[in-house]
Please model this.
Amino acid sequence: MASQWIKARQTKYAAYATVYILVVIAIVTVGNVLADRYNKSYDSTSNKRYSLSDQTAKIVKGLKQDATITYFNQTKDFREGKDLLDQYANLSHKVQVKYVDPDKEPEVARAAGIRNLGTAVVQIGAKHEEAKSMTEEGITGAFIRDLKSTTRTVCFVSGSGEHQIDNSDREGFSQFKDLVGKDDYQTKTVDLLQNAEVPSDCTTLVVAGPTRDYEQPEVDAIKKYVENGGRAFFMLDPPLKIGRSEIADNDALTNLLQSWGVDMHKDLILDLNPIGQIAGLGPQVALVTKYASQPIVNEMKGTATGFPLARSMDIKNTDKTSVEKLFDTSSSSFATTNLSSPSVDVRDPKNKRGPLTIAAAGTYNTGKENLQGRFVVVGSSGWAANRFINFNGNDDLALNAINWLSSDEDLISIRPKAPDDRRITMTRSQVSLVRATSQFILPLVIVVAGIGVWWQRR
Model:
């Protein structure tokens, strides 16, 4: 009788164990099948470092025809590119990824013009472009070059004290030039004083913070360019009269903008926003965290931008133009018309209180079908200079403006961000406090707590 009970119990336990094993096998099998069919991941990093950007997703998901990414490397090194390239394939069923070992298929590598291992080529239709690097920017750039049929050139005006694209100093625009190049724009400088005509190959004209007055022929050339369907980006600083580096009023140029519905004020914005002070910004930097609904800034929500030495403006529509505000300063800002003294009276009743408009975008009706001029005006130029363009969303704003002006709305988005710098900087006293806490105070607390527990139990 006892043996039967033991056997029955053993049989029951064996049945339970079998069921449990079968359930575990079923869960593992289903999990593997789902993992094979659906490649899902979660990026918990603060700036989504391991996820493709909105810009890439917009381009890839908007493909109208099939695209093939061919990765050339030795078979043992395919893994170096697989993680990144699989993300592209997961965005759209129109994207296929191929892996080619040049040692095993030399004819394929030769036909693609491959000279170095670890190279990717993106082909869309009959066009194929080699990625400039095995990064998201490099591969997405190849997609962009495949999709664009014409060369796009951003022309920077020079000759009147503007920021220079070949200048790598703090006030230079060399980083702006590099950012524009990543979206596959060509760049060059033009001198309208020597030749008062905007070159025909300029997709967008940039007027970046002139310190001297534009002559009337230069202004007339810009007017003709935009009103015939051209695109222009104006960054005009307040006409400060402090020290040796005075900034000219540039009345001829501001009068042109006024005729288009953008009235540039001769003032300086000071921002007392406490958030800006926490971020280490002085009152001379206008901090912007809220944006209007316009393609340039639609995807800037939740991103801050900063504008050193900015001026305000009023906007209105005219019979030929339609003008939209891009963003205002905070309510804690104000504008002073005292531009000749470094000291400003915050309580001066003449000060204009915020919010104040400091950027606008407009279109000009040329009267011709499918042809309109476009212009963007920002009351500051230092925000796009080397010393400030990497502040939060400034680089995104600069590229978004170029994209919109060039009618490349499909490129407007937030670009991939560099890894956050998580280093902790401490003073000598803070280091001493951390050392004392970890080496003495915490161990002492544990010892005292242990003695207390022993004493109670005793």
Notes: The chain has a mean pLDDT of 87. The CA atoms of residues 449 and 455 lie 10 Å apart. The chain is about 35% helix and 20% strand.
